[in-house]
Write a structure and sequence with these properties.
globular; alpha+beta; homodimer
């Protein structure tokens, strides 16, 4: 498990090969096993995979269009505000849900990248997907088959610099 | 890895046995390997383990005092607002960090419970810990040795009910 946590990378280079629908389902199932406050499970998903024209339009909502449009599948993650009891805590729960999906993708040897920047275009993405204002866009996870290229590990702060106190 | 994701439970019953410092460090290290927007790593930790009087005071800040005060260790998770570039996305990143800690705790056979309710007492917890307003309290993770008692799996929504569209 720790190996998977360590191995996870933001993968931005994909081959042209498709991702099996069954594997997308496995990512989603892992995501939905995250904890959430009062077990509200506020996460919702709009998946764009078959409709490549739509996928390109959603990709064009981010400044990372160049690589996002090359993903085979975009998992657009929303918060259902009707199932949310506390916005901040539900944002955290959805972060936990996305992390589960990324760890599962790592285990399945898929490439995946969490795109937060797209939140600036919430209205545009919802319009493209036909999703109403009951839902807030939380992230897009781009998923594809990884190219062989090795992704660099980002620099990390030292643990001692992140500990405010140990009493 | 999926087994760990499935096995993770909110554990609220602990034995009186301590948790090795080294295991707390492993949880924190797993947490810090989460992704964050622009690699900001906004998570910070204040750990309360040795000072049991302080631990009881922090526990008393939550309505779950009865079980939280029986944890051997409280990992108080904060956001460093000076290292935050977008509050919502950084809340999500901290959710991903907490999820890594919970998965690591599951792997180590430790009991852990994510307490969000304590956010109502941000000021009080920071006063107890001597932490200033540069930091926002994000959660407290109660950690201890699990009692043998089996924790129930919470009910889960069906995946099909969480998918808004698949195009």
């Amino acid at each position: 498990m720790s190996d998977i946590i360590k191995k996870r990378r933001s993968v931005r280079k994909f081959t042209v090969d498709p991702v099996e629908t069954d594997n997308i389902k496995k990512l989603l199932q892992a995501g939905t096993l995250a904890p959430s406050g009062k077990n509200g499970q506020p996460w919702r998903f709009a998946i764009v995979q078959q409709d490549k024209a739509l996928l390109r339009k959603v990709a064009a909502c981010t400044v990372y269009e160049d690589f996002v449009c090359r993903a085979d599948c975009l998992v657009c993650v929303f918060m259902d505000k009707l199932d949310s009891y506390h916005y901040i805590k539900d944002c955290q729960a959805i972060g936990a849900c996305i992390q589960n999906m990324l760890l599962k993708a790592t285990e399945l040897e898929l490439g995946a990248c969490w795109i937060g920047e797209v939140l600036n275009r919430d209205a545009q993405v919802k319009r493209l997907l036909g999703i109403d204002n009951r839902y807030d866009l939380m992230a897009v996870v781009a998923v594809g088959q990884k190219s062989g290229e090795k992704e660099c590990a980002p620099s990390r702060k030292q643990l001692q610099d992140l500990i405010l106190s140990y009493k």
